[in-house]
Each structure stands twice: as C-alpha cells, then as structure tokens.
Amino acid sequence: MATFENWGDYFWPGQIDECLRNKLDLRDPIALADAERRRTYLRSLELVDGKISVPQTFDLEHLQAIHAHVFGDVYEWAGQLRVTELVRPGSDPNEPGHEFMKPELIETMAPHVFAQAGPKPSRSAPGRCARR
Questions:
Q1: Residue 130 zone, left/alpha/beta (φ > 0; ψ -120 to 50; rest)
Q2: What is the number of structural domains in the chain?
Q3: How is the chain split among helix, strand and coil, in percent rounded to 5?
C-alpha cells in the first residue's frame, strides 16, 4: 500500500502531474480519465438509487464516506483527507491558478463550511397540509 505524504506520492514514479497512481494500474492519463468516469458514474448511481446507504450527517465524515464510495474502486486514497497543498492551474497561464484550502485547515474549517451548505430548516411548519 502506498503512502501519500507529499504531492508526488499521488502519481506514478516519473509521471508527476501526468497520471495519478490508481488501483487499476493504468499509466495513461486518458485511459485513467475514461475508466474513472465510467466507474464513478456507476458508483454514484448506487448512491442516488439508494442501493448504498451513507448516513446523511452533512459533515466532513459524510463527504469522506461519499468520496470513498464513489472513487474507492480507482484510488487508494479515496475518502481520505488530502495531506498536500493543491493548486489547479488557470486557463490563462498569465493568471494564478485556483488554490484549494490548505490541508491543515480542512478539519478546522469543515464544520463552518457544512453549516453554510447543509440542509436548511423548512419555512412551513412540519406536517402542515395544504387547504383546498
């Protein structure tokens, strides 16, 4: 089992920023993208169709459980918290990329993020029926 302690650990040796290390042993990034798309689509359908139950706690553990289910067939690290910084390059090489939250802040900030994104109380009283 691989360890994921730095950015390079997520990639095959000699393919940093090219092809993510994966359980399918695919070394071609296009083949990996295709396999990932097909497998994650099917795993997502299992969640949507209710074939797999993930406790809906709307917190970090909930998100990790979803990620583990959807991506677990493809990546060892599915469902685990990221331990390295991540920047997605912008479409314009003259502009800075999109920097994601620093890994050391994820657990601290997650409750605040989920409080804003989670289910909101209904405006109508529970159980109230429409009058005719």
A1: beta
A2: 1
A3: 40, 5, 55
CATH of the domain at 73: 1.10.3290.10
Q: What's the token pair of residue 127? A: 């159980």
| 130 belongs to a structural domain | no
Taking the model in full, what pTM does it have?
0.79
Residue 35 lies in a domain: yes
Which residue range(s) make up the domain with 20?
7-111
**For residue 93, how many C-alpha atoms fall within 13 Å in the half-sphere facing its CB?**
0
pLDDT in tens, 68-123: 999 999 999 999 999 898 877 777 878 888 888 999 999 999 999 888 876 666 56
pLDDT in tens, 5-53: 888 899 999 988 889 999 999 999 999 999 999 999 999 999 999 999 8
- Within the chain, residue ranges assigned H as helices are 29-48, 60-71, 103-117
